Each structure stands twice: as structure tokens, then as C-alpha cells.
Amino acid sequence: MALHLTPVRTALAAALAALTLIGAAPPAPPPPGPPQAATATAPGARAPASPAPAAARADDWTPPLSTRGRWIVDADGDRFKLKSGNWHGASGTWTGSGDREDPANHHAGEKADRIPLGLDRAPITEIVDGFLELGLNSVRLPFSNEMVHDTRPVADASVAANPQLRGRTPLAVYDAAVTALTDAGLAVVLNNHTNTTRWCCGVDGNERWNASRTDAEWEADWLFMARRYRDNPRVVGADLYNEVRRSVLDDPNWGRGDRHDWFAASQRVADRILREAHPDLLVIVEGINWTGIPVDGLPHGRPTLEPVRHLSHTLVRSGKLVYSAHFYGYTGPNHSGATGIGETTDPRYQDLSRGELLDALNRQALYVAAEGERHFTAPVWISEFGVGGRDEHGAKQRAWFENFVDHLVAADADFAYWPLVGWHQDRKGNGWALLHWDSAGRRAGVYDGDDWRAGAWSRLVGAQGRTGPVPVTDRWSMLAPDHADAVRSLRMRDTGDWDPGARKAACPDGQRLAGLSRTGNRGLCTDTAARDLWAPGGRHEVVRDERHVPQGGDWASGWTKLQCPAGHFLTGYAVRGATVSSALCAESRTRLGEDARTVWFDRGDNRPASARGGEFAHGRYKGQCADGEYAAGIAYTTRLGSSGNPAALLCRKLL
């Protein structure tokens, strides 16, 4: 044991250094060099190396937004591609040490004073007009939980170019930014970026949604923010939390049921937002940004959206879920982004070949949208990516950005560049932003003729992609009462506890139960071949015995059968431990077929050859009715040492 103490201590010390850099996008720029020869000698002068796109018709869409399969659509059913950027600042720019009032202690020397960056240098309308010139139709607007409750007025100097905002609190300035963006027709996605108002993202008290706040406080803040903008239809989304990652001692996880379970926390607050605060919002769930200690020889990596394949969200309102992920060239599938102490030998994304990069993107995120008709199929929003501009001369960095943009275009992916706004002096400064203002209010932009990113940016925002109407698609949803109830039906939530003491699962309204797993308690729901089958009024019955099994209709001899009454279909179930407790049967609004078959899955999978829905219970035996069928009963047994797991489904044909 003693032989291993020194390496472990060294590894942990290095890990602390490395963890401070996890996801810290973007890195601070180098010190300003000699001024370049100006390519624009006056504010607004342009000599674009690549023609700027025409200003976006940002108002050419009808809210609210929802999803159909992998696509986001507007209220008319037309595809709405999130062409977005991040307007940061309100979540904090202070790096965590030194005087908060000294710009030197803020990321890249840019002091935002708890509000969107740049309001000291340019009128808010000029900044928003710049977003339109970039070809954007939407903005991700970060905030911190601390900002929401901060009653201190912002300094006059921080809104020097916007005197109408003097004396306002940070939240009131945030309100003004939301109004300016939506008045211009832009969609706004609220982004809970940090707990505290400081620069993200290391071991900084912002690692998890509940790192510096309780779960209850975090959920209350989201309900407050969702309600605050409910009457503004162009506030379209709630991006629940940014770059969930490891703290010094603990990893986040996806599905363990503890207080570090990001899957459970995001599921819970998403349902609360849609049920209690704002039913029209898209809910954006980012994958896990980092787990493990970033030291060679110790397990570590960037899970992103990989866990979604086997455990996906099902919200109480279908068509509201979007997944998101972040990618920067200086990080990697197993690289934290650290340089020097704590840096591992894992490749960064910018070290990968074009093909290797595509493989990584597909594996970690894009598959969620690319693989249709699965329980996890949803739009994927690459809500952060970026690279240095004028001062970035690295061949790897430039190649990564060009390749990454090409992959976004080929995938027709929704995106949000980080960041939109920065400072410059003599065209030097934090070159990651697409638009920069100096202390005199002079703007430098990506289309001024001296920014190598202009061509790639034009390709990205100008890519055609899918447009126009998107047909309504079949929905496939997972039920996972692994550690708690998974009641995704608003109707059943309104009825109260329909099986006290049991863990309950119910399909979203409009869907029916299609499949069950032998162990693990997982279920699969769908609306294929019969949408909104449930009768008006929500009439239902909780079945706990064999009262509805007709004489001579023993479809699972020797097994206990929970069968729905005639004219009803299965829409949920309950378990106690592993034992089936009850079946939830809903009355159909249309006549149902009676032809039946028994689908056994006690000794192996029993699913149609063309089964859709995906692996809703990975590694478990599963039974599934065919697309043109409905489930009308569950069979199980507790005899001979059996644990009461479901073993068969009664599947009947739809008419």
C-alpha cells in the first residue's frame, strides 16, 4: 500500500490543477501585440474577406417552438434551426480571485459587472443589430442563480453606452436584454450557466446545479425565471445547466438516483417547468461535461450525451426536449483542456483527423438526432463551440474549426457560437468573439476582412439544410422508474397517488404502453398507428387482480394476469421492488380490436423484427407489441422463488 501513496498524492495534486481548467472556454488570449494596420479606419467600415450574409429575417417564424423527431419546429410546423450565439456576462466574468472591480481579475480583462457584456461600450440596439448581421435567429443568454437574487444596482460605468439602464439591478438589465433581442425577432434561450456570478468552468463552486445551492433553491429559481418571461412568446427555451462536471471529491452521474444524478435532477425540474411555470418552453438538457480525475492512469473523460442511448428523458409534455453538447478544439473525448500541470496524454479534438473528429462527434452527441425512431431521438444543439480569431495562427486550431464547421453543416445541426461579444483595443484582445467593441465604441467584426473565420462562418450560417414543413412523426418514449416514480402523464399526476407505496410509471398523454423489460422496470411508450387514443376526461382504471380475465381467456396459464377491461389499453404500471403491483388502463376514445396474442419475454427478447423504439432496457430481456397493436395486460408470477417480474404482455390489434 505504501508504494502507491506517493503516486496517488501526486495524481490528486495534479488533478486539482487540471480540474480548474475543465471546460474553461475559451482560454484567455495572449497579451496584446503591436497594433495591426487597420483594415477599417472608422466605426462601421467593412472590407469583408467573405461576403457577409444578408441580415437575418429573425422575425420570420411563429412561436412557440416544439420538436418533431430530430427537428425543432415553430407553431406552423416549419423547421426552425437554432442559428445561435452566446451573449455572456450576466453569469459572471470574475475569475474568482482578487478585487472584483479590477478588470485584470476578469476573464480576458473583460469586466461585465453581472450583466451581458458590452453595454458599457455600445448601445444595446447596436449590439443586437450586430447579431442580425451575423445571420443569427436566436441567442443563448447565460445567467447565474446569484444574479437572479442580486439587488445591488449595476455601476453607471457598466452601462455607460446605455444610460437608460442606470440604477437597475442585474436582473432588470437582463430583462432589458431579453426585450431588445425578442423585439428584434430573435428567439431567446435562458441558460442557467452558474450558481455564483463568476467565470465558468472549473472547481469553482459551480460544478453542479446544486454545488452552491440546494436542489429546492435551484428548482425555485427556474420556476421564477420561466414564469418571468412566460408572456414573451419569443423566449423559447430553458437551458437547465451548463457543463455539469466533477468537483474535487465527487463525480456527477446519469441515473444512480443520488443527489449527484444529473439525469434525475434535469428530469424533475423540466417536468416542473412545463407543468407549473411555462408549458411552451423547449427544455434543453446538456450532457455531462466531465467525470474522473484528469491524470494518466486514472479513469476520466467527457461523457457528453453518450449515456442518453441507454437512459433518455421523457417529459410530461411531448415535443419539448432538446439535448445539447459543447465542443472546443483544445478539449477532447478524454482531455480536460488543461495545459502543463495536470495535462494528460489524451488527444484533444484538434489532434484528431477529420474522420476521427466526425466519429467522436457522432459517438458523443450527433447520434441522438441522426438515429431516428428511438426512445432518445431528439434535436441536438451544439450550444457552445468557438476558436480564436485574428490572433489565432495555429494550424491545428484552424483546421479543427474548419472541419468542425463542415461537420455541423453536413449534419444540419443546430448551433450556438461562444462568444458573440468581446472587447478589443487596436483590434487586439479576446479574439474569440465574433463582434468586439473598443473603449471608444468602435466595432470590429468577423466580416471586417482580417478575420480568417469569416469563410467558415458564412458557410455555417448560410447552409441551406432542411426548411419548410416537418411532418408529424411517431413518438417513442422511455419509462424508467429505476429509483422513483416515472409518471409522465399530466392526467395521472392530477389524480394523485394511484398506487401508494409503489414506484409508478405512466406514458405521456397521447401515448400508450408498447413494451416492458423482464428486469429493471423499464417501459416503452409510443403513439404510432394511434395518436391520442385516450378518451376525453381521462377515464382510467388501476387493475390489481384478475377480475377482467374472462372465463376461458387464460392467455398466460399459471401466471397472475393484470388485464385491462374491454375498451381499455395499457398506459402505465407500478412495481414494488421488482414485483408488478398494478396495471394502469385507460379508456379508449375509439373502438379497439380484440384479436390477441401473448408475447412472452421471460427467457429472451420478444420484439417484432422491425421493432422501433431502440434499446429501452439495455442488457435486459424485453417484450414489445407490434406497431399496429396495443398492450392490454401484464403477466407475472411470484411462485417458486420468482420475484414477480413481468414475463408476458397481452397484445391486441388496433382497428
Automatic annotation (TrEMBL):
PROSITE patterns attached to this UniProt entry: GLYCOSYL_HYDROL_F5
Gene3D superfamilies membership: Glycosidases
UniProt domain Glycoside hydrolase family: residue ranges: 125-418
Keyword Signal: yes
Annotated segments matching region Disordered: 27-67, 84-109
GO molecular function: hydrolase activity, hydrolyzing O-glycosyl compounds
Signal peptide range: 1-27
Pfam families: Cellulase (PF00150)
Regions of compositional bias (Basic and acidic residues) in chain numbering: 98-109
Keywords annotated in UniProt: Glycosidase, Hydrolase, Signal
A GO BP entry: polysaccharide catabolic process
Sequence ranges of Low complexity compositional bias: 36-56
Keyword Hydrolase: yes
InterPro entries per UniProt: GH, Glyco_hydro_5, Glyco_hydro_5_CS
Protein name listed in UniProt: Cellulase family glycosylhydrolase
Organism this protein belongs to: Streptomyces genisteinicus
